[in-house]
Write a structure and sequence with these properties.
The complex is a heterodimer of chains A (258) and B (122). Chain A has nine helices and seven strands; from the N terminus they run H-H-E-H-E-H-E-E-H-H-E-H-E-E-H-H. With 258 residues, chain A is α/β, with parallel strands linked by helices. Chain A has a seven-stranded mixed beta sheet, with helices on both faces. Chain A is globular. Chain B is α+β, with helices and mostly antiparallel strands and 122 residues long. Chain B has one domain: N-terminal domain of TfIIb. In chain B, strands 1-2-3-4 form a four-stranded antiparallel beta sheet. Chain B is globular. Chain B starts with a helix and ends in a 9-residue tail after the last strand. Bound molecules: S-adenosylmethionine (SAM). The site of S-adenosylmethionine has 25 residues of chain A, from helix 1, helix 3, strand 2 and helix 5. S-adenosylmethionine (SAM) binds next to helix 1, helix 3, strand 2 and helix 5 of chain A. Chain B: Interacts with TRM9.
């Protein structure tokens, strides 16, 4: 296998109001590394990061795919103006390029970039906080996720569905408090299968990096599960069924090459 | 900001129905060398709004793109090289993107467009 590089911490730029690479950033990059063979075979044309912060993740993704010379192009967004500048410095320091847009999620790109993104990576603000803290200026918006940490995540998922190409993959960081199973079920209804690429527990939190890809069977299964749980009034059995469908859903994720 | 990115951006202001393409106001253009990748260009051609690219490249001072292009143009190496230059090598470093419907300006500083909306625009 080709030698690879990821971003180096000493070359990552910083600013007092920009999220510094942390356990979650490292977990996401480790997940991308763990899936590197698949990513190289996937030959993504357009890769997009939402919420690029310091640029550690998008620089790592660009490096591990071999940069633009390999035929992949990179776009990154952040709502924090300081973050996109810092990302620009980080990319320059590593000699890779990504197009940067200072925007809320992918606002402004959703129309024309629809269906063109082959790989999307997101380390969202996922910490449960009061809803008022979400989208505040500066560093708070880097982690404040509102109720169950789901406010921003739940806005990103439909955008991801819109932007991802038919062969598109989404890698997303989630915390146990975000209820990853529920996120997967939500994505399953949109027609995605899922797999946990990496699970990591730190002192404070338990992180899952989940990979999603389009799988027509997922939607069918999700609808079946809904029907079954609806017609069955015994709550115990209903939840058993939904657990079962979730299990087969995880399994189907592992049986393919994704 | 490359013209590829410009080609993917529309005005996101609430109520705007025809926000594409954003009109470019140039203060500073820079050119950056990028590897020539015919496969990518051929793949992207159908996704690009050629008219928007043509106009944008002219505003950026590059007059070498032909007035019309269709998939058969992709067989010409000469066309591919011009398309490559316009799409990937020209960068708007400083300037603005203007919403075609409302005239609202989105600033581009150090090559980064700011598409953030004011509260009354969301
Ligand atoms: C947990 S940090 C991750 C930063 C970086 N990707 C990393 O992994 O180190 C989340 C980032 O998302 C950005 N963010 C929060 N809300 C956003 C939104 N609505 N649209 C775009 N970016 C957002 C924050 O500014 C912050 O940089």
């Amino acid at each position: 296998m080709m030698p690879y590089r990821i971003a180096q911490i000493r070359l990552v730029s910083s600013h007092p109001e920009v999220y510094e690479p942390c356990d979650d950033s490292f977990a996401l990059v480790d997940a991308l590394l763990a899936d590197r063979t698949n990513l190289l075979e996937h030959r993504p044309r357009i890769c997009l990061e939402i919420g690029c912060g310091s640029g550690y993740v998008i620089a790592s993704l660009a490096l591990l795919l071999g940069g633009e010379d390999s035929g992949s192009y990179f776009i990154a967004t952040d709502i924090n103006p300081h973050a996109v500048s810092v990302t620009s410095e980080t990319l320059n320091a590593h000699g890779v390029h990504a197009e940067l847009v200072n925007t809320d999620i992918a606002s402004g790109l959703e129309g024309r970039l629809m269906g063109l993104v082959d790989v999307m990576v997101v380390n969202p603000p996922y910490v449960p906080t009061p809803d008022e803290e979400v989208g505040c200026d500066g560093i708070t918006s880097a982690w404040a996720g509102g109720e169950n940490g789901r406010s921003v995540i739940d806005k990103i998922l439909p955008v991801a569905d819109k932007l991802l190409s038919d062969k598109g993959w989404l890698y997303m960081v989630t915390l146990t408090a975000n209820d990853p199973c529920d996120i997967c079920l939500d994505m399953k209804k949109k027609g995605y299968a899922a797999r946990i690429v990496l699970q990591r527990s730190t002192e404070e939190e338990s992180l899952h990096i989940i990979k999603f890809w389009r799988d027509p069977n997922s939607q069918l299964e999700a609808n079946d599960a809904k029907l079954l749980t609806k017609t069955d009034h015994g709550a115990g059995f209903g939840s058993f069924l939904s657990q079962l469908s979730q299990m087969s859903f995880w399994r189907s994720g592992n049986s393919t090459n994704n | 900001m490359r013209l590829l990115t410009h080609n993917m951006l529309s005005s996101n202001i609430k109520g705007v129905t025809n926000g594409f393409p954003l009109r470019i106001e140039v203060e500073k253009v820079v050119e950056k060398q990028v590897d020539f990748n015919p496969n990518f260009l051929k793949n992207m051609f159908s996704k690009i709004d050629y008219k928007a690219l043509l106009e944008a490249s002219r505003i950026m001072g590059y007059a070498e793109l032909p007035d019309h292009a269709d998939p058969s143009s992709l067989e010409s190496d000469d066309f591919l090289r011009r398309f490559h230059h316009a799409l990937l090598q020209l960068h708007l470093e400083e300037g603005s993107l203007v919403c075609p419907e409302t005239g609202r300006k989105f600033p581009v500083n150090k090559g980064i467009p700011n598409m953030l909306l004011h509260e009354d625009e969301v």
